[in-house]
Amino acid sequence: MLDPYLYLFFHVLSHALLGAVIAYCFLPRDTWKNLMICLCSGALCGIIPDIFGDRSVAPWSHSVLFTPFLVLGIAYLTKLFYKKTSFKLIWGSSILSVLFGHLFLDYMGHDLPAFYPLSDKLYIMEAITLGDPWIWFPLIIGLGLSVFLRNKPKLPVITSILFILVYLVFRIISKEIIEHKIQVQHPVPEKSYIIVEPDSHYEFPLDPRKWLEFRFRVISPHFSKGGDAGILGEKSDKLFWYDFYPVAFEINLSRGKYVPINLQDSKVVISVTKEWKEAGSNFIQGKYDGNLLTYKETTNGQWEEVIPQ
After folding, report:
1. pLDDT of residue 1
2. Residue 119: how many other CB atoms lie within 10 Å
3. Residues 249-285: pLDDT tens digits?
4. For a tag on the chain, would you pick the N or C end, based on fewer CB atoms within 10 A?
5. How far apart are the first and last CA of the chain?
6. Where are the domains of the chain?
């Protein structure tokens, strides 16, 4: 596994690199001095939202509404070095470095208060884990080629950006495919929510192929189950766990994701071993505290224990 601090480094590096390559596409780079100013300005824009604070502490720093004002200082400092370049171009490039180099990447990885303070809604795609090598490695290759080739062409940088866009589209499509498979393979007899997220969350594998895999959860007031999904759902038929709650949990939206909340402080969680339908009723059987228990769904959506005769 990758060290968490090293993972954090790659997380920040992804933002900085994407901000830098966007600046590379717009700002002068005719001399080594201008090239360094261009890359440093873009990289700083790529990480500046986190400099002002975490999105949960300073949500305004991760809002698209504040982005133009967030980069004014960086754009002004950059203009001091680029005497012949218009401030509008520098400012616009800085805004794009924040929007795509940081906010868009954050949205693809975790929740984002995109329109704070007009809305407290958190937007999330969760198709990648930030620090994903499939993001930062192509950017390093593209930027390295563009910088060290004689005429400093844009093509390698643009190619790396296009690769990342294609990769992100692939991840979104993969999520959709997996969600459809889960819906078919693991239905529950009540309203449920399917959560598909990268399998690399909080684990940070060294093998870059592992970062391509997803895992899934299905949650509802009485059920929770999940497992690995693979890249396109090839592993989704097997469950790692399957729990049943005789006393219903409440499903709340927290930081852009649905989570079960145990409001009645019930301690009973059944590890499901069998489920079936009989005479139009759903039955669940599983183990709790070493005992095998059976529950039957009643007409009002509640569940009652079946006492052996």
Report:
1. 57
2. 12
3. 989 888 778 888 887 777 889 999 999 998 888 999 9
4. C
5. 52
6. 4-110, 172-305
